[in-house]
Fold these 3 entries.
Entry 1:
Amino acid sequence: MKSGSKDPDQKKDIDTVLQDYEMRYRIMAESTTLGMFRLTPAPEIRIISTNHVMARMLGYNRPEDLTGKTLDDMVIVPAVIEDLAAGIRDGGSFAGREVLLKQRDGSGIWASVQAWKLETRGSSVTMIEGFAEDITEQKIFEEEVRFHESELNRYALELSQVNKKLNILSTITRHYIL
């Protein structure tokens, strides 16, 4: 046998492992409740693929409807793209970044994003892969909590001022009665 060539059994084993990996990836992509995505690297970051959850999260019927779109098309605040790219460039990954994503109808949703650089051994091709979770309801809830907290603080301040006035009135009344 020539050096560098693989025997047929070894190639069959590799093909079996790859098919198994592909099947597991497809099952994970179809059954997860998180949006999955794969992107090209900077400078013009484009969507290579997504799962159905990510497509629905952004208001699309099929994952294929997102393929080829740039990240500029999907992010409401463009400055965040450089921040995300820097996270990948500097650390190879990031987690828990909150991003305001643009839906198909132009409205926005908040997503918690984690992503990492995906490099293939023996290839110069680099991709970005990750998950996104819709946290819009959580952000709305947090905003409501902040609003109610500020209202409670305002009421507490007003009650404190009313209490001071009542104490002064009580002192004056007691003094007058004496």
Entry 2:
Amino acid sequence: MWTTLLLLAIAVNFEPTRVALVAIMISGPHPIRQTLTFLLCAFGLGAAVGLLVLFVFDVRSFGSSHFDSSIIQIGIGTAMMVGALVIGTNIAAKWRARRSPVQIADAEDGQVSTDASPKGLKGVATRVHGQLHGKKSWFSGAAGLILALPTGEYLALLALIAVSDVSETVKASALFVFLAIANLGSVIPLVSYFISPVKTRSAVERFKNWVLARTRRQVSAVLAAVGLCLIVTGIT
């Protein structure tokens, strides 16, 4: 249980969307308020869902044969291996390109271009940047809630904790250990900002650029390694 918990919690901190949002909030005019709102909303929703699954819904009532800890670990690892394959081979993008090729006719010469206009994407990015840099914190809170929505891996992890042969106190501790590690990507910049705002902004920006610069094959390799580790742990 603990191996799966730690691996998944560490992986959460490298989600490109999460890293980019934290970098934007830290570089804004109200970094502490924006980042703290984002952190509290993400942590709060994750804790609420976790406590409901662990202590309100009785997972064991569905039958122990359906919820075995080793099977859950192998299932999570297999899902990550499949995700690594999809990312590494870029199957989804290739399939979309075959299904709906973008063709934009030039009004002047009638030529057909396959380049999509970036105006839409730039407009969305500008609005997101503006909302996160605004005086209100509702957007950063909404972003935290959206990113904290339970994924299949998180629900599988909760099922793994629920069926583990440990006390209720240990189960609750495991939940909050996971949430604490998974939100380090927000906690560390927030604490560091109190000490050195300029260095924190620079470090967060460098980390964001490093994460976003990873290639599909590098991301795929990391996912495959984590998935293989979980499968081996489940088997043993």
Entry 3:
Amino acid sequence: MKKIGSLFLVLALLLTAMVPSFATIEEQEQRLEDLENQRQLKQEDIDATSSEISLTQASIEEVIAEKNRLEEQIKQTDLDIIEKQEDLAKVQAELKEARAEVLAQQEDFGGRLRVMYLNKDSESFLSLLLKSRSIEDFLTKIDFMKSIADEDQRVLDDLKEKQVAIEKLEKVEQENLADLHIMQESLEKDKASLVAVEQALEAR
């Protein structure tokens, strides 16, 4: 009986010693489960942050591409404006020269007309006939007068052509001025857009 009692005592002691061990294992398992849950939450945060980083990176790349496009467009517009200003200066120089030529021809022609008007009585057909020493002399004077009239007509035709050329140049000048105005407006708009893009890029 003593042996049986001793055996029960040993078993009771063993069971008592094992209870805390089971409780410790359960706590450790719960702790492991909590840690796993925390790890999953952290992983979700990491995945969300990675996705956000990827989107932000893509957005930044788009903004950089737009910035580069605007800079290139501004550079090209600057070159176009310089070229258009050179064209305008050339047209304006041609206009100045053409107007000066027309003015000189008009003054010369006007002077000749005034002389002819003042001498109209002395240079009439009858006057020429009476002043002529012979028929040959009369025909020579008629030919001379005809030559003057032909030259006057040529000058008039030349003046008309130059006037038409001046009108065309003036039209080209107005078109160049309008184009230049549009280019300058476009340049200012692109520069404003570039400032906005640079600010957006800095913010991101």
